[in-house]
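Task card 7
Instruction: Convert sequence to structure tokens.
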Amino acid sequence: MTEVDIMRTEFLANCINILGNDFVITDAADQQPYLTDWRRRFVGKALAVLLPQSTDEVASLVRLCAAHHIACVPQGGNTGLVLGSVPDQSGHAVVISLKRMNRVLAIDVANNTITVEAGCLLAQVQDTASAEQRLFPLSLASEGSCTIGGNLSTNAGGTAVLRYGNTRELCLGLEVITAQGEIWNGLRGLRKDNTGYDLRDLFIGAEGTLGIITAAVLKLFPQPRAQITAFTALESPDAALDLLKYSQDALGPTLTAFELISDFSLQLVLRHFPQLQHPFGRSYPYYALVEMSDHESESHAIALMEQVLEQAMNDGHAADAVCATSISQSKSLWKLREHISEAQAKEGKNIKHDISIPVSQIPHFIQITDAELSAAFPGCQIVCFGHMGDGNLHYNVSAPVGSSDAEFILQQTAINRIVHDNVHQFKGSISAEHGLGMLKRDEIKLYKSELELSMMRAIKVALDPQNLMNPGKVL
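Output:
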């Protein structure tokens, strides 16, 4: 047995002493769910998968990793799309899964806060808040499988950012294990605290590269008395921008979601989910799913939404519109939006882009980027949808009809260059809500200034001098 083997055996024995034998996974087959990325396109390797159940156990593991110079890959629900929550293929790192740390620690209705461990599923937090007539507004298609720790580590967005902001805006305090295995208890439910650098915001969105988030204090809101959903038909992205501006003026802060959907995106959903129905008798180039939340009454909300839709059609902002009159109808309309990613997967491989553009520039971006891609890759199909209300588009590119997906994927670098160069031209971001991970780690170097990158590196070195916290991600 080599010296390295002896050290690893000693390390694993210490892990078992901390967690117990059942929660140190070394069998390759049992490790697979933790090593395989959400899209099943990449499989990493790990020395072990560790499943702590407490903050103290996480801290002990990190101290052990620091002593043995073994890298840690924090993991929540492993629903990320940029290879941020899986290890590389060296087999030298350990995955620290927080899924057993799934307790709701406290809920303070008067302070409108909930304190939860990082392994809590997003849906669990939503349900706990709802039971107290409160709303936790973060909403994602993966809410039944993603965790709060992962949401915080990637600063997740979702469908309600227009009204409530990203996960960063929904977090008041954190508990974090530093790279040295120390416990920072910042679980404060304060909305005002000007006592120095905002360490909380430093760890949110850092993708586990600076420390491991183990718990959080999150904002809650009063439950709205009514949520009204409408589906509108549009002739162009310009019409969508006009409708958004009109809706914001008419509905103000009650406007909670404004989702743009191209007709090709909708057709994919209808093809692969035939139980869903087209809202209109004919197709239109684009659609917008609009939702408002009202604190008066359902009848007031319906009347206000119908008034907005009628005026929008009279003014030419919308070609047609339907308003859900029941919860089931609202859910059906949302399924047309939420099933787009799954429909894409059923259709075949595609090249994904999670981008943000200043809202006012979205129509122009779509126009010129569609044209450039069509010229460079004749017949390519654009799956354009996303959270137009906050400027976040999922601008994905599928292979031409009849062509090989595998051959088309080989064009990813060239397609990324067209899309990302145009994003940069419009002063946007090549990662709006999914993070950088391994997938975009090198790509970002083309668009961030060297000064930005050097400041990020300085923070990384200061907090994680051994480079053991999720190495190879972000930087």
